[in-house]
Amino acid sequence: MRPNQPSLTPAGEVKRAQPPTLRDVAEAAGVHAATASRALNPSTRRLVSAETARRVIKAAKTLGYQPNPIARSLKTAKSSTVGLVIPDLTNPLFPPIVRGIEDVLEAEGFSAWIVNTDNDPERERVRIDSLRSRQVEGLIIATARVEHPFLEALHEQGVKMVLVNRRVENLEVPCVTADDATGIALAVRHLAELGHRRIAHLAGPHSTSTGVVRSRAFRHAIRDHGLEDDPSLIVECAHWNEADGAAAMRELLDRDDRFTAVVAGNDLIALGCYDVFAERGISCPDEMSVVGFNDMPFIDKLRPPLTTVAVPHHDIGAEAARMLLDCIEEPDRRPRSLLLPVTMVVRDSTTRPRPLPSA
Amino acid sequence: MRPNQPSLTPAGEVKRAQPPTLRDVAEAAGVHAATASRALNPSTRRLVSAETARRVIKAAKTLGYQPNPIARSLKTAKSSTVGLVIPDLTNPLFPPIVRGIEDVLEAEGFSAWIVNTDNDPERERVRIDSLRSRQVEGLIIATARVEHPFLEALHEQGVKMVLVNRRVENLEVPCVTADDATGIALAVRHLAELGHRRIAHLAGPHSTSTGVVRSRAFRHAIRDHGLEDDPSLIVECAHWNEADGAAAMRELLDRDDRFTAVVAGNDLIALGCYDVFAERGISCPDEMSVVGFNDMPFIDKLRPPLTTVAVPHHDIGAEAARMLLDCIEEPDRRPRSLLLPVTMVVRDSTTRPRPLPSA
DNA sequence: CTGGCCATCGCAATCGTTTGCGGTTAAATC
DNA sequence: GATTTAACCGCAAACGATTGCGATGGCCAG
Hints:
The structure is a homodimer.
Chain A: E1 6-8, E2 14-16, H1 22-29, H2 33-40, H3 50-63, H4 69-76, E3 81-86, H5 94-107, E4 111-116, H6 121-133, E5 138-141, H7 149-156, E6 161-164, E7 175-178, H8 180-194, E8 199-203, H9 209-224, E9 234-236, H10 242-255, E10 261-264, H11 267-280, E11 289-291, E12 308-310, H12 313-329, E13 337-340, E14 343-345
Parallel strand pairs in A: 3-4, 3-5, 5-6, 6-7, 7-13, 8-9, 8-10, 10-11
Antiparallel strand pairs in A: 1-2, 12-14
Helix pairs in contact in A: 1-2, 1-3, 2-3, 5-12, 8-9, 10-11
The structure holds a DNA duplex.
InterPro entries (chains A, B): HTH_LacI, Lambda_DNA-bd_dom_sf, Peripla_BP/Lac1_sug-bd_dom, Peripla_BP_I
Protein name (chains A, B): LacI family transcriptional regulator
Pfam families (chains A, B): LacI (PF00356), Peripla_BP_1 (PF00532)
């Protein structure tokens, strides 16, 4: 691919000229390539006279010169590139985060390689290795588990990274997440205010920090509101998806049907609940209230529209990217952690509990 | 970011060694860097003796050598990189396509830069320019419009590209799309078989090939089945989204409420219909049947679950990537076009028409 | 008038690979 | 045993940019 205009050779046939190089620009401006380089780079421009700088810049413009980022990277050992490690782009949670990331990256002249791990640790290792061999300057990781030796190893090796949505224990790296704890607190308060007293929780996997934070916050909130604090009302889903959400819901219903509301670990798990409701003819919200987490796109189109806690995905991505850029610029700054505020969005999947059957 | 192990300097403090270079490998194997290069590259390996090849490979392995793709790119003028131009990653249509693309790309050692244009031609120009300055070897384009001078210009300049989901008139470049025409035919047949005689079509924008192909196919199918062929039953949406779908639906209902079914240009437009049904208290499918197009993720979770025609998004992406790689390998092959088969998936948004009020 | 300083710019090395070319060696031919 | 031939490998020049260092020249101060 030749990013420049075709030109005519003397013989007349169309020939694609090579893109102009820095040398060409220098020659056109009557200076040495080194001078041209300095003139074009704002931070070194003070090393050349204003007059020659003007000439060089003009020449660059008329030639349509575009610096070759590959040559530049080779020399400077900077690739202006970061890696973005997510489980699966197909999960609607991630596209908004990705866009947030790319919005700030590209404003700084960076860009991102995206890799999907499908939650497979081995795939993750391979993908990250390939990212590193492509000389990325840092990593944004959305696949962190509570115990994650591989990430620890990377950190030991000085790989710059920031975590999104997840934390890992004993790992001193910056991370940006939603304020899960207050999100869950809001959800429980909403249900309590509606009059629910016996509330279940379909927790996310405890291998992820989000899973443990949310389920801990759930227990706290239950106690704070003086609701029924029954450990058997909490069941852990194996993964953050519909199938495992549905499985957990079935398990719960099979052993106890006296709860009137459920706080799902996230929207997908809530979707699993919907499936079970359809299976068993349970009407939501009349017989069972559900609140999700994340406010995924299109989750408001469900029947009933899902009450959930909205997470600023775009901001999460943007802040993560900014943080990574900060780390790259000043390598030994203390890692900060960012907790982004969430909001409760009440829709139609929650309502007052129906009075228990007066049996 | 240093992709290798930290090591100890004589002084004892931790120092991150430089990643091993080809020179290091060569030295370790007791050969020249050129020889090492040939030994490591399968296609030039026959130029060195089996024995030295073995030594070099072994040395590379023990040193953990990873070729520097930047240096290689500089020398070979190949970046092993393609650009992927989509309107908006947040549209659930695209993530599966992207994954399909990346699956085949990465098997060939390529990777993709993704850019979002938000359907803004100017943004598109800027993004594509930036892609080209990053030396991509080709482009996969999902934002094509029927008239698209910019793409024509790129093609003139010899930029390799393949179109997904869209075609552009008078542009001889390969493209891979779903078989829109038979998809629409299937939808219409489905409705006809249910007994619908007066069917509306909310067409996608005619600035996109998909919009014109689908609406033309709709008219043909209507005639083929001998249904009511009323041009006023076709209205064009300004964009492929819910808002414009809803607007078109309102317009349609305001001037004619005697149709009993609607073929939406795609699932998002169908979603817009759902919104209008809710506004106006129209019950779907009892009073109005709807069929969408694409079978977006989660569209089966709607109430009612949407009848739609399923498109093999992952395959579309995969085939497009393969095609682009083919173009890159043998530049002057004739552009082929691929039409991928679609399937009808019947859910609950379509049923027999209710007998007209016996007024 | 001379010495020193500063601004400006060119020289050349460098980043890590790839590759055309030429040189060395050993095997094959007569 | 001399010569052709092939196999193997090293030399060095790229690719296109950046950058330390040194050269040049002008200017000012002593």
